[in-house]
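Input.
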Amino acid sequence: MQTTPPTDRSLADTAAPARPGSSESEARATWSVINSMYAAYTVKDRAAIDACLDPDATIWDSATAPLLCGKTDLDRVRDERPAASEGPQEAGLEAYDPVIDVFGDLALVRYWLRVDFAPDDSGVPLRPEIVRNTAVLRRCEGQVWRIVHLHEDVQQAGGDRVQ
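Output.
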């Protein structure tokens, strides 16, 4: 498991290599949707996150067991989450190491996500959360890519003190 994103890449400029059968521009366009979603998440812009998602998208959310079906389910889970002031404080996140295949108007994007946390109140560093993700995107409305399915799989729980 890769727990540390490459140091020479950032959320905004990570290259998205095209695999056989996919063009570099298609791979970059789909990777841009993923990065836009996380950029919106970091500034708590729910509308911008939703713009990356198909309204009927299905999501295996890392924090809840049932499959979420559409925006109504997603909003319910969002509203049930603890307040930002409760628990460890997220300090940043980075999507990295994408593997992208594009099949006409469908794309399959596999990648890692690292969520970093601020040290606890006594200054002790907290372990990052490492999540393995798969997103399925569909090209719709001309050239707009939207996520129609997202599967989050936590490989390393975060927010605990580093031992």
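Residues 6-13 have pLDDT under 50 and may be disordered.
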